[in-house]
Design brief:
DUF4158, DUF4158 domain-containing protein, 54 residues
Length: 54
Amino acid sequence: MAEYLSDEQVGRYGRFPAAPSPADLERFFYLDAPALAKVADKRGPHNRLGWAVQ
């Protein structure tokens, strides 16, 4: 069986090296005007939320 990750990589998988800063959070999770327009096109609050989260 092939191994794709080293033991060290497995230990770090899914973890941040440090807590993200507020600027990092804004950069990664902020929806700009074009993205908000696409969200508004979706039907129903559950679809809008799902699209925005993806």
